[in-house]
Amino acid sequence: MNDQRVKGTRDFIQDALLRENLIDKIKESYSLFGFKPIITPSIEYLSLYKNKAGEEIENQLYSFEDKKGEKLVLRPEHTLSKLRAVNSLQLPKPMKFYSIGNVWRYEDVSKGRYREFIQADIDTYGSEDPFFDAEIIQCIDFTLRKIGINDYTINISSRKIWDEFLEKVNLKDKEKEILRLIDKIDKVGEENVKLELERMNALSVLEFLENKEISKDLLKLFEHLDKLKINYVFNKKIVRGLDYYDSFVFEFISNDLKMSIAGGGRYDSLSKKVFGKELSATGGSIGFERVFELIKSKYKEEFSDQVCVISVGEDKEAIEIANELRLNSIRTNLFLSETNLSKAIDYCNKNMIRFAVIVGRRELSEGTVKLKDLKESKEMNIKKSELLNFLLSK
RNA sequence: ACCGCGGUAGGUUAAUGGUAGACCACUAGGCUGUGGCCCUGGGAGUGUGGGUUCGAUUCCCGCCCGCGGUCCCA
User: Fold this and answer.
1) Cis amide linkage into residue A94, ω under 30° from 0
2) For A326-349, what is the mean pLDDT?
């Protein structure tokens, strides 16, 4: 009864190492582009999000009152926390930060959608130069390739195109609704969307979709992407659900999942709207959970480089050897003589530990220990003094 | 949020309105000299609360969790 997990949360045991490795790789890759870590609180005032998105937003947040009666939320994203933190900084522009951590949303749960999940963002603040927009895309492209994902299409569009168009045809007041429909075209089919648009008296939207003319803000971005040798497609149907984007937007769509695995865009007016201070910003994030699922299906457990020292009646010596290995950063397990040898070796097998070092009288009398390589199914006697260097070289 | 389906040890599953059983895994010993073994034991389960019943894991209802779909998705 008390052993049930909260809806939409998960325990990671078998997958924990793989997740940690993935996070490390993403951080490393973001760092290679000059992004620095920023860590912001997991809890924020509810009003922060209400200012940004209105009263209804509370339904989608994990909100609660603290003991003082203060209305708080578990952060549903990193964007606003980062923006607040960065707003007051006096650092050389542009300021480039990454953040990887848990976020929470009180939403319906289904396959691939959880209430607690990881978001991995990069953002560049304080510059309107489209080069930095291109850099965001380049960095995400680089990172995905680095973690072994390369079967996707980069789709790019701009909210400005739609703003200008809808202004021109007097549909600005229905912008939210229209963009939502555009976003759904590939999912529900053009016919269904057409019916809806007809009802709204907005059929001109479909004609506009056909028109491939590129706006000025995108032209500059595309030039940079070409220089960086990034492949992309211009796709007006990409609008992103978020209303805070106000310029270019992008999505990386996985070719086999047919789903978005990364996305982002420019949001120059958000800071002014929420904090009353001008700060241009552009950013993107990798959908960690989807990427994780993609990686996981390819992943096979292999022998780790761990070592297991097994004593056969020579505990004192075995302890010394194990400690020496640990001091040299070799990950080492230790079994003393109470565990019989075949069980200790079985343990190594089941835990994919590659090397077993058997410390017994026979070997010690010759100044050696026995080294078993469980992966290669080989064993050899090796001088105690050479053991460390041998293992370090593996 | 709504509709549909489901839930038996850690995992896979069997059975029944009347004693919940198996395999894998775990654990102890056999076992102080060698591999995904072997032998003998052991712990551990009907998601949860209520109802019907002499008796419910089985039938009924609420809730929880999961899966699929619709809505939504910063």
Assistant:
1) yes
2) 93
For residue A266, give the nearest of A156, A173, A186 by alpha carbon.
Answer: A156
Together in a domain, A83 and A150: yes
A195, pLDDT greater than 90: no
Does nucleic acid strand B have an atom less than 7 angstroms from the CB of A201?
no
Domain termination residue (choose one: A255, A274, A298):
A298
Beta bridge partners of A288: none
Query: Per the domain annotation, does A272 fall within a domain?
Result: yes
Query: Is residue A290 domain-shared with residue A318, that is, in the same domain?
Result: no
Predicted confidence at residue A242, as pLDDT, reads 61
Q: Which domain holds residue A200?
A: 16-40+75-298
* CA atoms in the 13 A half-sphere facing the CB of A140: 33
Supply the ipTM of this predicted assembly: 0.84
Using a 7 Å CB cutoff, list residues 119-148 of A near strand B: none
Q: Is the distance from CB of A175 to CB of A163 less than 8 angstroms? A: yes
What's the CATH code of the domain at A364?
A: 3.40.50.800
Length A392 CA → B30 C1' (Å): 38
Which nucleotide lies closest to A112 by the C1' atom and the CA atom? Answer: B67
